[in-house]
Amino acid sequence: MEQDGVTDSPTDPMTEALLAVRDRRDRDAFARLFDHFAPRLKAMLLGSGLRDGSAEDIVQDVMLAVWHKAGQFDPHRAQAASWIYRIARNRKIDLARRKPLPLPETIEEPPDLEPDAEQILALRQEAALLREALTNLSSEQRTTIQKAFVEDLPYSQISQMTGLPLGTVKSRIRLGLDRLRHELRGLNR
Q: Which intervals hold domain RNA polymerase sigma-70 region (predicted)?
């Protein structure tokens, strides 16, 4: 039957199901709509970049809107698929509008690496105390410690250079460091 060029009975089964929901609140017809459109809507939303569960939330919201707003559906203006996808598109836009815009990352300024006058003075005082403490060591301990910590030589190389056994080199360094610790113990208060 045609009336003014518009068909009374829609040929699309999903449009027929939506009309059954609209006219009779048919739950079986709604189940068919849900089974048909829910996975397609989810795929469309995931394909548009939605993650974090938002796609599932929008699908649920859209299908709930289909149930509640079926009375607004006019088959003469659109097929069921067009009407439902338009609802989904609008829900996605609403979600994007509600989300706050990401704030730009704050870039922290690196700390000033230049020592200030107080730090320079403190370092000079510590260096003077260390030089004085080194003069109180025996010359063997002082030479061994300087090679190990100033020249950054491994103990084995110091042993080869001096002709001393490795154990002697280690003992001199250990005893020298113990004496330095004792002399400088008040420095780190």
A: 33-99, 133-182
